């Protein structure tokens, strides 16, 4: 039995980056031997075990064979006869197909260190084309390592084009696709993810509603630069998408509720926010009501931030509408309902009276 560190832990150590998760690979062992040493099995599709002391995952060396469509269409075979080289060749990129033994020696049968040096994301073998999820993974790695100067190798980009043309991307589940999109959006240069998908014709297959020009991605670039959270970045990505198409994208990838809501509301009200200081009091109050600023003030704040990122993306130096809208929201929230209740109002009458009081407060705020 031999145990190796594999994949990202080896790659990132060689790049001088912090290593967070370690993948362990066991060569030459059986399921029974692992259990005899106290490892607990957890893998449903192929043998993965938890270390009895550390709880880290250890996987048996395995091979795989394409048996169906999509990310899950594979049959795995694990046995003591599977070599390290046979396990590594099934991985996506050469920089992810390196191993390290317990002495710190790097085993690199597919020249991952050379591709690290030349800043190339290159596939390990033609079997790369069997897994459509790798199109998104490579685009995500391109976004992650863009600050270091990495690019997708030409022959790998061509394989990605072939996958896009094959229709296999349509077999990906929404959950697996979203996981890659989410991780890519949180990278330092998430626009590279979209650009690579566009370069290999996958964007048209996955997100035909999006455009890949600099103007369309500018808000997302600003959101990443200002370290905004995921839901703001998602809304910025969909900045120039029509409201109906925003809803279609949300549903297609089953985006989290917070992402869906902010993207839809931004698509509907961003123009009104940009014209905020010229809005009629009734129009401004209607927008505040739509956002439910009384019970969900953070959602309106996230919307304002998204609008700021859009403005910065357009080349504007400041967004004075932000403080104006914050003040309007605070003014509406400050209206006290207690005097109306004490006056005996209830139900619909109370609601109308409260709305009128808030409208008066907004009118007074605008006259300042």
Automatic annotation (TrEMBL):
It is an enzyme of class 2 (transferase). The keyword Signal does not apply. GO terms for molecular function: transferase activity. Mg(2+) binds at residues 21, 23. Its EC number is 2.7.7.72. Residues 4-122 form the Poly A polymerase head domain. Keywords: ATP-binding, Magnesium, Metal-binding, Nucleotide-binding, Nucleotidyltransferase, RNA repair, RNA-binding, Transferase, tRNA processing. Belongs to the tRNA nucleotidyltransferase/poly(A) polymerase family. Bacterial CCA-adding enzyme type 2 subfamily. This is CCA-adding enzyme. It comes from Pseudomonas taiwanensis.
